[in-house]
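User: I'm writing a tutorial on reading structure tokens. Could you give me a worked example: one chain, its sequence, then its tokens, then a sentence or two explaining what the tokens reveal?
Assistant: Sure. Here is the example chain.
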Amino acid sequence: MIKEAPVHMVDLKGQYARISNEVDAAVLEVIRSGAFIQGPAVKRFTAHLSDWLGSTEEAPIHVIPCANGTDALQAAFMALGLEPGDEVITPSFTYIATVEVIQLLRLTPVMVDVDPQTFNMDPTSVEAAITPRTKAILPVHLYGQCADMDAIVGIAKAHGLYVVEDTAQAIGAAWQPGKATETGRMAGTMGTIGTTSFFPSKNLGCYGDGGACFTRDAAMAERLRMICNHGSRQRYEHERIGMNSRLDSIQAAILDVKLPHLSSYNVARREAADRYDDMLGGHPDITIPFRDPRSSHVFHQYTLILGQAGDGPERRDALAAHLASIGIPFGIYYPKPIHKQGAFMDLGIPVGALPVTEDLTNRVISLPMHTELSGDLQTRIADAVQAGLAL
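And here are its predicted structure tokens:
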């Protein structure tokens, strides 16, 4: 009997195998140079990423690398110079890091609901949440698709607010692709500051931890560089409180190898998503991912909604148990919204206040999504999903 190949939620080994010669040579070059921190590899990568994001001489995009995506968010809010108690509007349907840094800096998170189709921040909820203490909006481009940046940036301009984009899941996604809008195009380049993560499973991931901030504002970029380097631009001169958050040269070299492949990686993810759509789109208990026609989608995750609005988690949990029993990986992003987490209960957001968020946390499930997915593997996964729902 032929043993079936294992299914991976993310296949980093398979991806590495196709670029191993380039990666190995780049890593060896750094080791031989001895320049492990703030070395030439970091400068090359940030320059290349800036170009990739659409930087021009007339409208430069500054890339400030740091140690991880959470640090990128923290550095961004430190650079804005907000005061304790200032309010930041953000979704509750996100990873903890998005909101964690707001609390860490003694700011006040104001959590709003999301659009039931895109999973991204609902601009109507943002407008309703603004108070005299509001200073910033923090949209999350969840699962690989841009939030409604025309609306969000418009609201921010009308009220004099900063916009910090959490682009950890959407590097390479474009808002209004092919149309030069006032807000710009690439995720992470439309607000005051964009942030991203290079965690290994991301669309552009290193082989450790890494992150970056993006901004079109040169003065803001200088503040971010200082903050990530102990508040210093000159050795032993510390002009402000900062942090020790640097992207090391080996990770930068790996990212620089992977960056030229990022567009093809995102294409492979879209093609895999299309195949899933064909296999699962007709099922009465499955809602496949919605593609906002105003945004490209890079499918960091391929996330289904099961059942009907108002259903509890029982159907999803039963499917998860079935998939686990036959070795098919899955993810639930996220099973509990931020406003129901113990660390944020003191905000006093009542159950039912964010109904779309609470409904989605009961019904979403993400299937394996990566650059190495074959049609045969996806058929196995889709068959397993349909069998699990039939139980």
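What the tokens reveal: The mean pLDDT is 96. Residues 12-33 form the longest helix (22 residues).
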